């Protein structure tokens, strides 16, 4: 019972504290601080380091704290109406520097010759001068050298906020309870929770700060992963999944009919997925594989398995081009086995659409391929058993759950067209099972990638011409469709005109971009895949999935504007046949990181390596782009730098959720309570 009251006491409004009235409460509310606990949980976003340093090591304009002896009589000067400057010479070690205080004329009486003074300010190396922002008379103190800096708004300043936090800690700090089980605290030698709170707000040393940070990182990851694992557990227990008893013999026959044998990795993931199909749980699985690793055929095999079990299947893809292409390849693989495959996109209209919807509802269609139009209201299935969605990393946990409410609890497999770094995969997709194709089909040549300056475009075109002369085809990718006054980057329409001129009727140049109608797009793609068009100038719409094996060269304009994962995905459009392929990045990156990124592209063909690098260089927010990504927010933890802790916390969470003791013992009740607050778990009985 004591637990409950402690937490309740902490959850009182901030106004229970003396000195915090309605006005202050309003200011705090602007920072989303309403309760005492929220005040304590308002962590600094950085620390000012007040340790003494040798001025020789301090860079120009850097903030620094120094201790020195006043070496000249402070001299006060007024200028303007209320402006003043107090200047003095101060001896700091072997340096004689100038110190100024602005608009604090009263200090003239306080600071005297020969005083010892400690002050902080920006170091002007050229003038050997510091303008003091903070100071105290007397020697530098050994303690409290990490001053927390809080983000604030409006009239509330950091100093005042810090005072409130200090007060909250003194009055309520003893109510903060440990929430981590003893076993983990001991194993990982973690600082206790109350201590960690004290340290994060009032650190005495860097070492101590590191320890407190380490504790919160682990706690944040553990709580997050517990949520994910609990979601998974309740999903499994609550979903009325259907066991799909597929026909193993038929499946083997289909696999044998393929023009190649599956890689070991493909076999492994087919097994994993088929195991889910057969089990009475609802599948919630993520399939990752590099570009060209052969995910499509895995999808085809598993969709076929589902059909042999007597159910319908659906394959959802992000673009119509991709839908067309998957439709063709699935038809080729599956129609010989009496499977009826259909395509449903927005360009299928009127009577045709009506008939198709009718057939879907009557169960006459076995597999349907389409864009998101597939999960619209008017689309009904007779017995939808299995849904595969491609490139869905743009959805968050919640959207995925909504998607899964469609149909009769179908098994769901998510395929990502871009490899996702493991840290992100187990965070964003933490509640899912993951299958990885980590092997390429035999005989693949690696794509040779070069980085050239944009001025080299014509020479690169000459190189392209050589490939074309051998009968091959190529892509040129531009960031924009047409010229823009805002951005100085290349656009597809201009490049198309330029190329048409350059190749002078020798080769046919196609133009592809997102503003074409789907009929036009289809026409261009068809012309390119049948080699009536040799060079396709395009925006990134060809990024996903497009398969023209005769294309052996790709030129990417303004390549520094794209993420590594995206460049890799684009590059994956070549190297699909048996011939050596090339990718040329035209880029004049201005930053070091930009140059680094181009270099990495030329050094590796491994999508997983690239995605890790991309995450490292751009951070988790940018990795998925601006669209809703479902990334959780951590206060202290950083998914990239603390990935080891993330792994450890994940393993611990899996162990706890599967155990009996986690759900029963008092020791875990604080953690259980934290789960209660999360989306998707609200209805569950957790404590
Ligand atoms: P992904 O979707 O993973 O990028 P795809 O499924 O489009 O890759 O496969 C790329 C190409 O490789 C396709 O032409 C496909 O037929 C071929 N392929 C797939 N698996 C194998 C394999 N095991 N051996 C040889 N070729 C394969
Ligand atoms: Mg694919």
UniProtKB/TrEMBL annotation:
UniProt keyword annotations, A-Z: ATP-binding, DNA damage, DNA recombination, DNA repair, DNA-binding, Helicase, Hydrolase, Isomerase, Nucleotide-binding
Keyword DNA damage: yes
Family matches, as InterPro entries: ATP-dep_DNA_helicase_RecG (IPR004609), DEAD/DEAH_box_helicase_dom (IPR011545), Helicase_ATP-bd (IPR014001), Helicase_C-like (IPR001650), NA-bd_OB-fold (IPR012340), P-loop_NTPase (IPR027417), RecG/Mfd (IPR047112), RecG_dom3_C (IPR045562)
Domain Helicase C-terminal: 456-616
Catalytic activity: Couples ATP hydrolysis with the unwinding of duplex DNA by translocating in the 3'-5' direction; ATP + H2O = ADP + phosphate + H(+)
One of the GO BP terms on file: DNA repair
Organism domain of life: Bacteria
CDD domains xrefs: DEXHc_RecG, RecG_wedge_OBF, SF2_C_RecG
SMART domains hit by this protein: DEXDc (SM00487), HELICc (SM00490)
EC number per UniProt: 5.6.2.4
GO MF entry, a single one: hydrolase activity
Short name of one Pfam family: RecG_wedge
Span of domain Helicase ATP-binding: 276-437
Family statement: Belongs to the helicase family. RecG subfamily.
Classification via PANTHER family: ATP-DEPENDENT DNA HELICASE HOMOLOG RECG, CHLOROPLASTIC
Function: Plays a critical role in recombination and DNA repair. Helps process Holliday junction intermediates to mature products by catalyzing branch migration. Has replication fork regression activity, unwinds stalled or blocked replication forks to make a HJ that can be resolved. Has a DNA unwinding activity characteristic of a DNA helicase with 3'-5' polarity.
Protein's name in the database: ATP-dependent DNA helicase RecG
Organism expressing this protein natively: Oikeobacillus pervagus
Upper classification of the organism: Bacteria, Bacillati, Bacillota, Bacilli, Bacillales
